[in-house]
Amino acid sequence: MSEHNSEKHAPASVLAAASHASEEESVRPPLIERVIRPQDADPKRARRSERLIALFFLLSAVGTIGFIAAYVAYHPSNSTSETQSSNVWLGASLALTLAGLAAGIIGWVRWLMPAHETVQERHGLASSEDELTDAAQVVMTGFDETALPRRSLLKRSLGLSLGLLALPPIVILRDLGPLPEKKLRTTLWEKNSPLLNAETGKPVKLGDLAVGSFTTVVPKPVDDMTPEEYAKTPVLLIRLEPGLNKPFPGRENWAYQDHVAYSKICTHVGCPVGLYQKQSHKLLCPCHQSTFLVPEACKVVFGPAARRLPQLPITVNASGEFIATAGFDEPVGPSFWERG
């Protein structure tokens, strides 16, 4: 009896709101309205669009195969011209791969999938059961509209394109090996190696350099070295002002009459150090501005380099020509992970 009286005396506004909500639920429209696409109304047009999209995906697959073929054909590159050709073919094939894939996806969306305008109202973070159901409906409706379930040609061509696209990164892993073993630890410099001018190939003699000047020297003519050998060989021979050099402890006899020799390969990432400031006696790497103070055993005074430039011990033979008294006692160039 009391329950009946409670319902009878309930506020009219509450009853009206409940009735209105019930009516909204009963006439709630579908979350996504179906849109008839031109291709849906014209099966021939749909088939033409499907074949064109599949062609784009196949072109993407051809580009991927071309990328792998170009990489294998030009690797390793033994000359600048081969490197240029490799870059052209690698870039062109990768562009075809990505362009074909992009064109196929864009065509798919524009020609075979409908467009919708939706408005999303602000709401709390927690989702209701109705919202979860609606989200599931959106996902399933969207999947159905991609036409994947019924367009096997698109499904197969897209799968081929995406599947092949995963191969280039695997092929490029080849560049991680083989390990350099001890090749990075040694150079061509050894005891009695002559200091030859890198440009002329002639021995550098005592007195050839003016005070405050420098030159690049190598142990044998540049033309007789492989690119790998030359990459770690160049040395800077510098003539300092008298009494300016402060040798590193234990290296008091590594210089000769104010002439010092240091590796030209920066210890940061291996760029050639070729800028010498005569007034400040500093060597500057042009790549990342690592700066080395020559009179103090080329210690790092600025920049990202983590260690000094390796020093080459030198002297002069009976003919007055500079020679090395030994090779480098440490690896030249940037540090590497297996370096002891």
What does this protein structure show overall?
Helices cover 39% and strands 11% of the residues. With 340 residues, it is of the alpha+beta class. It folds into two domains: 2-117 and 127-176; 196-324, Rieske Iron-sulfur Protein, CATH 2.102.10. The strands form three sheets. A four-stranded antiparallel sheet has the order 1-2-3-4, with no helix packed on it. A hairpin with a 4-residue loop joins strand 5 and strand 6. Helix 4 (43-73) packs parallel to helix 7 (152-165). Mean pLDDT is 83; it is low at 1-10 and 12-30.
Helical residue percent band? 25-40%
- Described by its quaternary structure, the protein is single chain
Distance between the termini: 93 Å
Rg, nearest Å: 37 Å
How many domains make up the 3D coordinates? 2
Morphology call? elongated
Mean pLDDT value: 83
Unreliable parts: 1-10, 12-30
Question: What is the chain-wise order of helices and strands?
Answer: HHHHHHHHEEHEEEEEEEE
H/I helix tally: 9
Briefly summarize what is shown.
With 340 residues, this protein is α+β, with helices and mostly antiparallel strands. It has 2 domains: 2-117 and 127-176; 196-324, 3-layer Sandwich (Rieske Iron-sulfur Protein). It has helices spanning 2-8, 12-26, 38-41, 43-73, 80-112, 129-145, 152-165, 167-172, 227-230, and strands spanning 196-197, 214-218, 235-239, 259-263, 275-277, 282-284, 291-293, 299-302, 314-316, 322-324.
